[in-house]
Specification:
heterodimer, A: alpha+beta, Phenylalanyl-tRNA Synthetase, Chain B, domain 1, OB fold (Dihydrolipoamide Acetyltransferase, E2P), Phenylalanyl-tRNA Synthetase, Chain B, domain 3, 6-stranded antiparallel sheet, B: alpha+beta, BirA Bifunctional Protein, domain 2, 2 domains, 7-stranded mixed sheet, two-stranded antiparallel ribbon, rod-shaped
Chain lengths: 812, 339
C-alpha cells in the first residue's frame, strides 16, 4: 500500500511534518512505513521558462540556440539544445546553471541526480537545460501529456498554460511530494485505502480528519429502468450496488487526480477509468465499469460458474472456470469474474455511451481461492481477499458518481441498485479502564482512553462503558483489541518495562537437550564440527545410498507441495545430508574433515500419515582424511563412557548396511539393544556422492540412549598397592577377533586384571600367511595387597591356556 | 705439627681454587679428608704428639677439616651455579613459534547463539521444551486463532503432508502443547526447526529455526513483556542496547508488537547492516490472545500471558555478520571453524 503525503494532506489539512517525522510517528502508532520516495530529492533550481527566440547553431545541424525567458521581469538566458520538439513561445521546465535534475539523457537515472553547469556546446555558451519528464524523475506513463523523447512542453497542457514565468516548475507538476510505502497488516482492511491511513495519520498527529463529503447525485431518471440485478449466490455476494452513467464524455482526468494516481504508481488513462481507480485507492473498495450497451437484457446476474465454463477476461486471456467461482453475468453470458477481473466483452472502450458502475462485496476466501486456482492476482482481488466492509460499498459508489459529476465525465442516472439482504451492523465492545491498565501494566486514565477511541472514529459511551465499532474496523472484537488501540495511541514506548513478579519457576533444559549438549562437547573435543542439513531431501538419495528396494529407510513421508524433487521427502536417515556435506568439503579441497549433526529423522508409523510420525534425533558423524574405522569407534566408545553408559557394549561385524563397506562395519549393541552403527562408506556410495577419499560414518540413535540408565560416577579410591605389568604377544588366524581374545583376558584374569591395552597389531613377513599377531600390555593389581610374581604368573598361565583353546598361541 | 697442618691447609686451598670442574672437587675431598687423606694421616700420627697437646692438636685438625669442607662446598655451589647458568643460556627458544593446540571441533553458529539465548531465559526461570516438527494443522494454525481459509494461513507458505498434517511453519505450535498440559504457571522457551516454502537464496531458506517464548500466569502485563524482552536484548547484544516496540498484528496475540533493537554494529547511528535506520527488527511478540487461552482450556479472566518468537538464524547472521544464509546449511569446514 502506497500513499503520497499530499493525498493524506487532502484529508488531514493541518498535517505538517517531514517525511521522516511522518515515517517514525506512523510506524510507532501501528501503520508501519517501510520507506519513502521524495520526488524532488534531486530537483533544484528548475523554473518555468518561455522560449522567446530560436536560432540555428552555426556549427552543428542538430543543435539550436534558444533565448529562454526565466522570470516575469524578462531576464533571458541562452540555452543550447538538441531537442527537436521546441518552438518559440513554448513554456518549458528549465534547470538553471548550478541546479539539479534526476536523470540525464545520456546516463539515465542516478541516485544523487546530476548537476547542471554552464558550458559550451560546439563553441556556443549554454547556461542551463530544458527538461524532459524523465529528467524530472518521472515518465510519460505518469505524465501522459509530456512529450516522448523531447522537452516537456508545459504550455501544451491548458492547466499549465498560464503558469507564471520563473515560477517553480517542480511545484507546478506536483513533484514536491513524497510517496510512502506501508506494510499494512492483514487485519487492517480499512488501511488498504488512503482514507483509512489518513484517519490513522490524523489520530497519530492529533489533527482533524476531514474525509470527503459525499453528496447526493443523479438526475430525475430511475436506474431501475436501465438495469436489474439478481444475486443467485447470496453466500458469496454480501452486497451488490450498481448505478448508471450516461452521455459519457471521455477525457483526461484533471491534473490533481492524475498526480495522486501517479504518486501511487497508477497510470492515468481517462476520466472514467481514473475515477474507478481513484475511488478504489481512496476507500479500498474496488469498482468495476461495464459498457451498459454490451449488457444483454439490461440484467446483471451474480452466480457461480459451471464446471468447464470458459470466459475471456479483459486482458484477452481465455480462462477455464469451475463451479466454485463466482461470475457476474448479463441476461445471456458472463461479463466478469467477480472480484478479480472484468470481461473483454463488456469492457469500456473509447466509444462508450452509457456505463454501469459496480461496487460489491464478495466472500474474501472464495475470491482468494478462485484467484489461486486461476493463477491470477489483481489489485481488486488483493483487496477483496481481505474481506471488505459492505457498508463502504455504497459510499464508494456515490463518491464515484460525485466525481463523475464534478469532472463532467457524464450524466449520473438517479437512484441506485442495492442488493444487501443482511445489513452488517456495528458491534459494541465493553471496556473497563482498570482491566485494560491491568493488561498493559499502565495507569492510563479513562478519559485518555476515550479520547484515543474517538480519534479513530470509534464511538465510546462513558455511561455504558461500551465502544461502538464501525463496521470497517472488523478487526476489533473484544477488550484485548481495544487495549491495543489504547496502547498504540498512548505509545508503546511509554509503557513501562517490568519483569513478571509472580510465582517462581524452575528453569532448565530437558534431559534430552542436556544429553545433546554432552555429546556435542565430547565429539568437539575429537575435532568434529557441527553441521546442519535440511530435513527434506530427494528420494534419489535412496539409490545413492545403495539401499535395497525393500529397505525400510525408503519408507519416507512425502511432502504434498514440495519446492521440487530435491526437497520432497522427509529424511529417514541423516546420512544423505552428511555425505553431501562431506562431498561439498571434498570438492572444495578441504582436508581432514570431521562433521557431526544432531539430526531429526522422521519415521512414519503408517503411510499415508494419520498420526504424527516418530521424530528421532540421530547423532550422525562423518569424516575423511586422517581418520579410520578405529578413530570413529574410539569416539563412540568415549561418548558411551562419558554418558555413563558403561554396561555391556558389543561391536558386531556386518551391520547389514548396504551403504557401508561389507568388511568394515559394525553394529553397536548396548545391553542387548542395537543403538548405533559405525563403518567405512561403501566405495560405490562414495562414488555416487562424488567423494574421492575413504570416508567413515557413525550413527547413534540418540533417542534410544535418552531413557537408558546411566551409571553415575563414584570415587573408587586411588590404588594403594603397586601393580605388575606383563606384555604378551599372540598369534592367531586372521578371522579370530580381538574382541574374543579380550573376552578371555577379562574372564580368566578376573579381578586381578586392572586394565589391558592392545599396543600392536601385525600381519606380514614375520608370521605365517593367514595369521596375525596381537600384542597386549596387561596390568595386574590387587586392591588389598601387594601382588606376588607368582600370583601373576599363575593368572597369566590360566589366560594363555584358555587362549590356546581358541587357537591363539604365544608368539614364538 | 702446626706447620704441617698449615701446609696441608695451604695446599688444600690452592687445589680447591685451582680446581676447574665439579669432578675434581671430589678428588680433593678424598685427598685431604678421605680415610687415607692427609688430615686423617695427621690424626693417625697423633700418638707422636705429647699427650697434653693432643686435645689441642685434635681441635686444630678438626678446625682445618671444617674450613676445607666449607671451602669445597662453596666451590661446589659455584660450579653448580655456573653449570646451571650455562645450561639455561643454551636453552633459549623462539617463543614466537606456534603453540601446540589440540584441534577441537566447533559448534554451529546457530547452536552457539541458541545456547546464549537459553542461558538468558533459564536464568529467568524458563524451561526449554520442544515440540514436533511434523505437526497437526490444529496446533500450527487453528489453536493459534488462524482458522481454516484464513488469509494468514496462505501468507506462511506451508508445506503439507496431508490435509491435516504439515511441516510446522512456526514454533508457536509448541505454545499450544504447553498450555494444553494444564500446568500453570508457564514459563518456557521452545527452540526448533520450522519450514516455509521459500526458495533458497541469501536471505531465505525453506528450513530455519525459531525460538518461541511463552509466559502464562496471573497478572502478566504488556509491561512485563517489554521488560523481559529488553532484558533479553541487553544480555544478548550487550549493555547499552536499546529496544523499540512497534504495534503489529499476529493472529494469536493482542496487543501485538514487533521489537527492534538498536543496531549493535553502529550503535544506532545507521550503517549498512541496519540499512541506515539505526534499528534492526528482531522479533514479534504480544499478549496471548484471550481466545487462544480459551481454546487451550485456560481462563483468560484469571490468567494472562505473553509470547514471542525470534528467528534464530536472523540473530546469528547479524551477530556474526554472515551475509549469506546458505552458508549455514552447506557445512563447509572453513565456515564452521570460524565459530
Amino acid at each position: 500500500m502506497d500513499t503520497s503525503l499530499s493525498w493524506i494532506k487532502a484529508y488531514v489539512p493541518d498535517l505538517e511534518c517531514t517525511a521522516q517525522e511522518y515515517t517514525d510517528a506512523m510506524t510507532l502508532s501501528g501503520t508501519k512505513v517501510e520507506g519513502y520516495k521524495e520526488f524532488d530529492k534531486n530537483l533544484d533550481k528548475i523554473v518555468v521558462g518561455k522560449i522567446n527566440k530560436i536560432e540555428k547553431h552555426p556549427d552543428a545541424d542538430k543543435l539550436i540556440i534558444c533565448q529562454v525567458q526565466i522570470d516575469e521581469a524578462g531576464t533571458e538566458t541562452q540555452i543550447v539544445t538538441g531537442a527537436p520538439n521546441v518552438k518559440e513561445g513554448d513554456k518549458v521546465p528549465v534547470v538553471l546553471d548550478g541546479g539539479h535534475v534526476a536523470s540525464s539523457h545520456k546516463d539515465g537515472e542516478n541516485e544523487n541526480g546530476f548537476k547542471i553547469k554552464k558550458g559550451k556546446l560546439r563553441g556556443v555558451e549554454s547556461f542551463g537545460m530544458m527538461c524532459s519528464i524523465e529528467e524530472l524523475g518521472s515518465n510519460t506513463d505518469m505524465y501522459p501529456d509530456a512529450a516522448k523523447d523531447g522537452i516537456y512542453i508545459l504550455s501544451d497542457n491548458p492547466e499549465y498554460a498560464d503558469a507564471p514565468i520563473g515560477s517553480d516548475a517542480v511545484g507546478l507538476l506536483g513533484l514536491h511530494d513524497v510517496t510512502f510505502e506501508y506494510e499494512v497488516t492483514s487485519n487492517r482492511v480499512d488501511c488498504f485505502g488512503v482514507l483509512g491511513i489518513a484517519r490513522e495519520a490524523a489520530a497519530t498527529f492529533g489533527k482533524k480528519f476531514v474525509p470527503p463529503v459525499v453528496k447526493e447525485t443523479g438526475n430525475q431518471e430511475d436506474v431501475n429502468h436501465y438495469i436489474s440485478v439478481e444475486v443467485k449466490a447470496p453466500d458469496l455476494c454480501t452486497r451488490y450496488t450498481a448505478r448508471v452513467v450516461k452521455n459519457i464524455k471521455l477525457a483526461p482526468s484533471p491534473e490533481w487526480m492524475q498526480r495522486r494516481l501517479a504518486s501511487v504508481g497508477i497510470r492515468p488513462i481517462n476520466n472514467i477509468v481514473d475515477i474507478t481507480n481513484y475511488v478504489m485507492e481512496e476507500y479500498s473498495q474496488p469498482m468495476h465499469a461495464y459498457d451498459l450497451d454490451c449488457i444483454e437484457d439490461h440484467k446483471i446476474i451474480v452466480r457461480k460458474a459451471e464446471n468447464g465454463e470458459k470466459f475471456t477476461t479483459l486482458d484477452g486471456q481465455e480462462r477455464e472456470l469451475d463451479d466454485s467461482m463466482l461470475m457476474i453475468c448479463d441476461g445471456k453470458r458472463a461479463v466478469g469474474l467477480a472480484g478479480i477481473m472484468g470481461g473483454e466483452n463488456s469492457m469500456i472502450t473509447d466509444h462508450v455511451q452509457t456505463m454501469l458502475f459496480e461496487a460489491a462485496t464478495f466472500d474474501g476466501t472464495n475470491i482468494r481461492l478462485s484467484g489461486k486456482k486461476l493463477g491470477m492476482r489483481t489489485d481488486a482481488q488483493a483487496k477483496f481477499e481481505k474481506g471488505l466492509d459492505p457498508n463502504t460499498a455504497m459510499e464508494a459508489m456515490n463518491r464515484a458518481c460525485q466525481l463523475v459529476e464534478e469532472l463532467g465525465a457524464g450524466e449520473v442516472v438517479g437512484g441506485a441498485i442495492d442488493y444487501y439482504p443482511v445489513k452488517k451492523e456495528p458491534i459494541t465492545i465493553p471496556y473497563d479502564a482498570a482491566k485494560i491498565n491491568a493488561l498493559l501494566g499502565t495507569d492510563i486514565s479513562e478519559d485518555d482512553m476515550v479520547a484515543y477511541f474517538e480519534a479513530i472514529d470509534l464511538l465510546p459511551d462513558k455511561e455504558k462503558k461500551i465502544v461502538t465499532v464501525p463496521t470497517w474496523r472488523q478487526d476489533l472484537e473484544r477488550m484485548a483489541d481495544l487495549a491495543e488501540e489504547v496502547a498504540r495511541f498512548y505509545g508503546y514506548d511509554k509503557i513501562p518495562m517490568t519483569l513478571p513478579e509472580s510465582s517462581a519457576t524452575r528453569g532448565g533444559l530437558s534431559d534430552k537437550l542436556v544429553l545433546e549438549n554432552q555429546v556435542r562437547n565430547i565429539v568437539e573435543s575429537y575435532g568434529f564440527c557441527e553441521g546442519m542439513t535440511f530435513s527434506f531431501e530427494s528420494p534419489k538419495v535412496y539409490d545413492k545410498l545403495n539401499l535395497k528396494q525393500d529397505d525400510v529407510l525408503r519408507k519416507s513421508i512425502v511432502i504434498a507441495n514440495p519446492l521440487g524433487e530435491d526437497y520432497s521427502v522427509m529424511r529417514t536417515s541423516a546420512l544423505g545430508g552428511m555425505l553431501s556435506s562431506l562431498a561439498v568439503n571434498y570438492n572444495r579441497r578441504n582436508q581432514d574433515v570431521r562433521l557431526y549433526e544432531l539430526a531429526n529423522v522422521y519415521l512414519p508409523k503408517q503411510i499415508p500419515l494419520t498420526e504424527l510420525p516418530d521424530e528421532r534425533v540421530q547423532f550422525t558423524l562423518g569424516a575423511y582424511g586422517q581418520v579410520d574405522f578405529y578413530d570413529m569407534k574410539g569416539v563412540i566408545e568415549e561418548v558411551f563412557y562419558r554418558l555413563g553408559l558403561r554396561g555391556k557394549t558389543e561391536y558386531q561385524p556386518d551391520a547389514q548396511k548396504a551403504f557401508l563397506h561389507p568388511g568394515r562395519q559394525a553394529e553397536v549393541v548396548y545391553e542387548g539393544s542395537v543403538v548405533a552403527y559405525i563403518g567405512e562408506v561403501h566405495p560405490a556410495v562414495l562414488k555416487n556422492f562424488g567423494i574421492g577419499e575413504r570416508s567413515y560414518v557413525a550413527v547413534v540413535d540418540l533417542a534410544e540412549l535418552i531413557a537408558m540408565p546411566k551409571e553415575s560416577i563414584k570415587y573408587a579410591g586411588v590404588p594403594k598397592f603397586p601393580s605388575i605389568t606383563r606384555d604378551i604377544s599372540l598369534t592367531m588366524k586372521k578371522r579370530v577377533l580381538a574382541g574374543d581374545v579380550e573376552a578371555v583376558i577379562c574372564k580368566k584374569g578376573g579381578s586381578l586384571v586392572e586394565s589391558f591395552e592392545l599396543f600392536d597389531v601385525y600381519e606380514g613377513a614375520q608370521i605365517m600367511e593367514g595369521f596375525k599377531s596381537l600384542a597386549y600390555k596387561i596390568v595386574f593389581r590387587a586392591k588389598d595387597r601387594t601382588l606376588t610374581d607368582e600370583e601373576v604368573t599363575n593368572t597369566m598361565d590360566k589366560i594363555i591356556k584358555a587362549l590356546e583353546e581358541i587357537e591363539v598361541t604365544l608368539r614364538k | 705439627m702446626k706447620e704441617k697442618l698449615s701446609k696441608i691447609m695451604e695446599d688444600a686451598m690452592a687445589q680447591i681454587d685451582e680446581s676447574g670442574q665439579l669432578d675434581r672437587l671430589n678428588d680433593i675431598r678424598v685427598a685431604f679428608l678421605g680415610k687415607k687423606g692427609e688430615l686423617t694421616s695427621v690424626l693417625k700420627s697423633m700418638k707422636e704428639v705429647a699427650p697434653e697437646d693432643r686435645p689441642k692438636v685434635g681441635q686444630m685438625v678438626n678446625e682445618a677439616r671444617s674450613i676445607i669442607e666449607k671451602k669445597i662446598e662453596e666451590r661446589r655451589t659455584f660450579f653448580e651455579q655456573k653449570v646451571m647458568e650455562e645450561k639455561i643460556k643454551s636453552e633459549t627458544i623462539d617463543v614466537t613459534l606456534p603453540g601446540k593446540r589440540t584441534l577441537l571441533g566447533h559448534r554451529h553458529p546457530n547452536t552457539i547463539t541458541l545456547e546464549e539465548v537459553e542461558d538468558i531465559f533459564i536464568g529467568l526461570g524458563y524451561q526449554v521444551v520442544e515440540g514436533p516438527e511434523i505437526e497437526f494443522d490444529y496446533y500450527n494454525f487453528e489453536a493459534l486463532n488462524i482458522p481454516a481459509n484464513h488469509p494468514a494461513k496462505d501468507e506462511q507458505d506451508t508445506f503439507y503432508i496431508t490435509k491435516d498434517i504439515l511441516l510446522r511453519t512456526q514454533t508457536s505450535s509448541v505454545q499450544v502443547h504447553e498450555m494444553e498440559k494444564g500446568k500453570l504457571p508457564i514459563r518456557m522457551i521452545a527452540p526448533g526447526r520450522v519450514f516455509r516454502s521459500d526458495e533458497v537464496d541469501a536471505t531465505h531458506s525453506p528450513t530455519f529455526h525459531q525460538i518461541e517464548g511463552l509466559v502464562v500466569d496471573k497478572n502478566i502485563t504488556f509491561a512485563d513483556l517489554k521488560g523481559t524482552l529488553q532484558e533479553f536484548a541487553v544480555r544478548l547484544f550487550g549493555e547499552g542496547t536499546k529496544v523499540k516496540f512497534r504495534p503489529h498484528h499476529f493472529q494469536f496475540t493482542e496487543p501485538s508488537a514487533e521489537m527492534d533493537v538498536s543496531c549493535f554494529k553502529c550503535g544506532g547511528k545507521g550503517c549498512r547492516f541496519c540499512k541506515g535506520s539505526g534499528w534492526v527488527e528482531i522479533l514479534g511478540c504480544g499478549m496471548v490472545h484471550p481466545h487462544v487461552l480459551e481454546m487451550s482450556g485456560i481462563d483468560p479472566e484469571e490468567y494472562t500471558g505473553f509470547a514471542f518468537g525470534v528467528g534464530l538464524e536472523r540473530i546469528a547472521l547479524f551477530k556474526y555478520e554472515i551475509d549469506d544464509m546458505r552458508l549455514m546449511y552447506e557445512n563447509d569446514t572453513r565456515f564452521l571453524k570460524q565459530f
